[in-house]
Amino acid sequence: QVLPTPTSGDSDLRRRLFQFVNLVNPDDQLLFLAYLATCIVPEIAHPACLLVGGEGSAKSSTARIVKALVDPANIDLLGFPEKDIDLAQICSHNHLAVFDNLARISRTQSDVLCRAVTGGAMSKRRLYSDADDFSFTFQGCVVITSINLVAEQPDLLDRSLLFRMPRISSESRQCESSYWQEFQKMRPLLLGWIFDVLAGAMDIMPTVKVESLPRLADFYRWGIAISLALGESESAFMAAFDQNRQKINEALLDANSLVSTIVDFINRQAKWEGTATELLNELINLSSAKTLPKAANQLSRQLKEIETTL
What is the pLDDT of residue 289? Predict the structure, then answer.
């Protein structure tokens, strides 16, 4: 669909945006604004946006708003295909792909989403041909909504922003028809405001110097510039980003049994050294063998995946 013609002139649009988006924590709001604005910035890795909350927390509505401001389409919320090649194709056909109400993400699907964040390619056999194939590249923005955190693989979580959304009280709930009518009226102003913020951030970007960059370094620098353009401090964005990293680490601790077992194991002693086989035996004595890798080489591989989190 066509984006509306952006207009500007309303200085109170930041407050107005969060009348539609159910985020109340100031750090989450700043990080969400940085994410929303950078979705329009081309040729950088955009973190996956994970909107997590129970029924009635407006996850899907928030995802629809991001889609409407960044990449409007007749089909705004997408189903999650089972085949990896179909998932890659959807990501290649949408600048911003919104997958709604997911129940789980497999390891291979997680790998495709990682490539959607940082850029990747896949090939597929051409129809009615035995030898011919075609390839397509994809890199863009991904939004995932779910009741529980379904992104459990460390590599995808490390490329994500996590927003936990509270349930909306009955006193604050709006009729859906009036909610969307009001948003459509505000949409040109909100888009113009985003462009104004980006214009300010583009002027600031050459002056942004960061000694130690995290993963998603381009997003991080743009986030600082956008925060400064919004009148916030550089440290405010850094604190919001660090707090979000901590949320993701805690989520991984809850979701990954090996992480929690390792943390429990190392908290019992100051230091431990040994082979992967010896470590696996120690962990089996500490925890249930059912939740641990079956062999030492599997343990070694999984430890490399969670090393950053640990």
Answer: 61
